[in-house]
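Worked example 3 (structure in, sequence out).
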C-alpha cells in the first residue's frame, strides 16, 4: 500500500490482482487497467508506489509504479515492474493508463516463490531500486549473468543507472546494485539516506541488512539459519568477506515489510525500523546504531501483518495477511488516548 502525497488517499493491492483505494473521507473505490497477474503460491499483484514529488491537492493524474508476477513460456514465471498513469475521473473509480513494463526478472523460471519485487525510490528521486528474489533456486543469487537474488538500481524509466557496480557489463548484470539475497520483502531508506533491506532466511536467519553497492550478502553460501530439511548452512561469521546482517532472527519473525518511522505520533520511535511480522504475528521495533541494529520491542497482534505504512499524520497503517476468520483487515494504529 502507498499514500498519495497530495491528497492522502491510500491505495492497496490485493494478491489476486485487485487494486483498491480509500480517500481520507472514507470513500472506497477500485482501479481498472491492472495487468493480468500469475496468481498462486507467493505470486500475484505486489508492490505499488507513487513516483515522488507529486503533491497537487487533486488526484487527477499521477505516475505510479507497480509490481506483479508475470507468466512466461511453458511453466515459467517471473516478477515484472511497470510504470503507468493513474487517472481518477470519479470519486470511487480510477484507471491505470499507458502501462509499460520497465523491468523484468531474468530469466523466468519454474515455481511460484521468492519474487520479492519491492520498490523504493532514492531520497534524491533519481533512482529506482527493486528487490529481486532468487525464486527458491538458491544458486542464481551468486550468478551475475542473471538478476535473480539481487537488488537492482535503475533510472525511473527502467534503464540501468550509470555508476552501478557492474555498469560496464551486458544486461542484466549492469542493473545490479547488490547480490547474494534470498527473498527481500522490505526495502527502505533510513533518515540518513542509507538503503536497508529486510529478507526472509530459510529455517531461521531472517535478516535486516544495510545495502551497499557491489556487496555480496552471502545467500546461499552463508546464513544464520538452516535449510528446511535441517541441513546446516555455514554462519555469516565463517565468511567475513561477505556482508553480514545488521541483525538476524532465529527463531524467525517472518517479516512482511518495514518502515523507518519519521512521524510525531510515536516520538520515541523516530528513526527506528518498524517491522511487520507474520510469525509470530505482530510489530517489531528495531533501533539503528550506525551499521548495527538491535531489537527494542515487540507488539503481538491477532493476525499476521503483511504490510506497514506511515500515514500523513504519523499514524501507522497495517495490512493483515491470511485467510483465517477475521483476518485481512486494514488497521490504523494511533497512540493510546487519541
Amino acid at each position: 500500500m502507498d499514500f498519495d502525497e497530495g491528497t492522502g488517499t491510500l491505495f492497496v493491492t490485493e494478491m489476486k490482482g485487485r487494486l483498491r483505494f480509500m480517500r481520507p473521507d472514507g470513500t472506497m473505490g477500485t482501479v481498472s487497467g491492472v495487468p493480468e497477474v500469475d496468481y498462486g503460491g507467493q505470486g500475484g499483484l505486489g508492490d505499488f508506489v507513487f513516483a515522488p514529488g507529486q503533491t497537487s491537492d487533486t488526484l487527477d493524474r499521477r505516475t505510479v509504479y507497480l509490481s506483479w508476477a508475470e507468466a512466461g513460456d511453458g511453466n515459467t514465471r517471473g516478477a515484472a515492474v511497470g510504470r503507468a498513469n493513474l487517472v481518477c475521473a470519479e470519486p470511487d473509480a480510477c484507471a491505470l493508463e499507458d502501462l509499460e513494463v520497465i523491468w523484468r526478472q531474468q530469466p523466468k523460471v519454474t515455481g511460484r516463490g521468492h519474487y520479492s519485487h519491492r520498490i523504493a525510490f532514492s531520497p534524491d528521486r533519481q533512482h529506482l531500486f527493486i528487490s529481486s528474489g532468487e525464486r527458491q533456486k538458491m544458486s542464481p543469487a551468486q550468478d551475475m549473468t542473471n538478476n535473480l537474488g539481487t537488488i537492482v538500481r535503475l533510472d525511473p524509466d527502467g534503464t540501468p543507472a550509470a555508476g552501478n557496480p557492474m555498469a560496464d557489463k551486458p544486461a542484466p548484470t549492469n542493473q545490479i546494485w547488490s547480490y547474494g539475497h534470498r527473498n527481500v520483502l522490505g526495502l527502505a531508506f533510513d533518515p540518513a539516506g542509507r538503503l536497508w533491506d529486510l529478507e526472509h532466511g530459510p529455517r531461521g536467519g531472517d535478516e535486516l541488512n544495510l545495502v551497499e553497492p557491489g556487496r555480496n550478502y552471502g545467500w546461499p553460501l552463508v546464513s544464520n539459519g538452516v535449510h528446511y530439511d535441517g541441513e546446516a548452512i555455514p554462519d555469516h561469521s565463517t565468511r567475513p568477506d561477505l556482508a553480514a546482517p545488521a541483525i538476524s532472527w532465529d527463531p524467525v519473525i517472518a517479516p512482511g515489510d518495514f518502515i523507518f518511522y519519521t512521524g510525531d505520533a510515536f516520538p520515541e520511535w523516530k528513526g527506528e525500523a518498524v517491522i511487520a511480522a507474520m510469525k509470530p504475528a505482530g510489530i517489531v521495533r528495531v533501533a539503528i546504531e550506525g551499521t548495527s541494529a538491535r531489537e527494542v520491542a515487540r507488539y503481538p497482534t491477532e493476525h499476521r501483518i503483511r504490510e506497514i505504512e506511515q500515514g500523513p499524520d504519523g499514524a501507522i497503517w497495517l495490512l493483515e495477511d491470511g485467510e483465517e476468520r477475521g483476518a485481512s483487515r486494514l488497521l490504523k494504529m494511533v497512540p493510546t488516548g487519541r
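Notes: The CA atoms of residues 263 and 313 lie 7 Å apart. The radius of gyration is 19 Å.
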